[in-house]
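To whoever picks this up:

The parser on our side crashed when reading a file containing two proteins. I've narrowed it down to the boundary between the first structure block and the second sequence. Both blocks are reproduced below exactly, byte for byte. First block:
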Amino acid sequence: MNFHIMTLFPDMVMNGLNTSILARAMDRGLISCEAVDIRSYTENRHGRVDDYTYGGGAGMLMQAQPVYDCWRSIQERLPQKARVVYLTPAGRVFTQETAEELSREEELILLCGHYEGIDERVLEEIVTDEISIGDYVLTGGELPAMILVDAVARLVPGVLNNGSSAETDSFQNGLLEYPQYSRPEEWRGRRVPEILLSGDHAKVDAWRLAQSLERTKQRRPDLYEKYQLAEREHSC
């Protein structure tokens, strides 16, 4: 899978992605990531990519021309039309389900906004998806883009050494993940639950499901209600 990230800060993006699991996945050719500098495509002789907004208002707006030409330089290298995801607080909220959907793409172009955003005309021209990582505002789209890449890339076969890791993550089955423990069996007076030491895999699975249900009910009642509704519909 190939990620093409349109940004004003390519070093920031690549420094964040060139570490740990994602770096190893890139080394093995399982994924590729490139950060393409939008500023390289401006026609302004001073290198500007922003200007004042029509109608007034605070802050500056990224102009359509450099964004469009940056996108075109990427798209021309690709075998087919790629989905273009604009990272914006106005988009649909990013979920595990969205990550799974995007992980099925061969090519993905991510657009990072900055300042007060991007001229609407170029968004209408090239963007296929608008995605938000949450109901808050950041200084730019670079961190959201890195989050999206991380969440999507780990679903690509082979990226995680243990292929079953992603299957037991929070949200994978609509529930939060159960609590987990490692050695030693006792730490500061706190013992690992005896059921996990029993070797009875059926009982362990049942305990984990019960813990996931209880944790989801307490921390995310919205997810718990959705899970219960799906279970009732499935049993009908």
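<<boundary where parser fails>>
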Amino acid sequence: MIAPQHICVTGGAGYIGSHACYALAKRGDPVLVVDNLSTGNLGAVRWGPLAQIDLRQTEALAETFVRHNVRTVLHFAASAYVGESVSDPAKYYDNNVGGMLSLLTACREAGVREFVLSSSCATYGIPETLPVTETAPQCPINPYGRTKLICEQMLRDIAPQIGLSYAVLRYFNVAGADPSGSLCEMHDPETHLLPLALFAAAGRGPALRLFGMDFDTPDGTCLRDYVHVSDLVQGHLAAVDRLNQGAGPLTMNLGAGKGHSTLDVIKMVGLVTGRNVPWCPAPRRVGDPPALIANTTCARALLGFKPQRSDLYCMVSDAARAFGLTKTLEQEGAHAILV
């Protein structure tokens, strides 16, 4: 008996990957999670079987794809800390680039037909103009961004040779949590602004460090395009549907199309939680552009991408709810699975 066609989500035990699994399952798509659990959370694998495989295990990966009749791959698995990529670039080339080559080889051997790559605005480096369009020069300024750009180039070169239709989705800053509160963001170590600000406000962590207050931005802090994780996932599902309809190749930005500064986020956390966010200034981090904002015209035109929850209040409120940091939820004893 042939297994039903599965959509494989690499990194499906992680923050974005688990939200993607949830959204796919809600619309009835059979899901297969591939994750080595080096950074993922086993408790987040609830919407499909788990194959605990490192992406560099090509033969095991291909056998798993065949067994589960995988037609489509959503590739989220990667090392993704900019600072760590500067201090340990070899790890990033081994995991991100080596893993990508192995994954594409497994796709060829198993006859996978569609591939959606999680790429990054880090491939643009410091953009010359804002908002950033997909045709902007890609000049990454850190090893993480360079590995993502190499993965894009690998896909463009290899996919036509193996009959693979693909989409490259360049994320901006992903934030928030599923509105149900059943999933939230948790990394180890945690480096993302919103959870760190929430932890600082709740007294669960140290004062928030603001890395650089002398950027050429309105308030001197970094300006970023924050997109709600649920909106981002809907963009992936739309890309899968377009590829299934014969479209492709596709390359586009996924963002909200507007920027918020670090201080904007801190103020919103204070508004939502009713708590002060303790913070202290810190030196700039290597590899931090002053501002990154997406032009999303292409995603709107080709995918019908219209973020529904990517206003700052909504993203902070959803994240606070998932962490149990709103007054109502604290009274109800709300909790979340940490992803």
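After patching the parser it read the second block fine. The chain has eleven helices and 16 strands. Confidence is low (pLDDT under 50) at residues 328-339.
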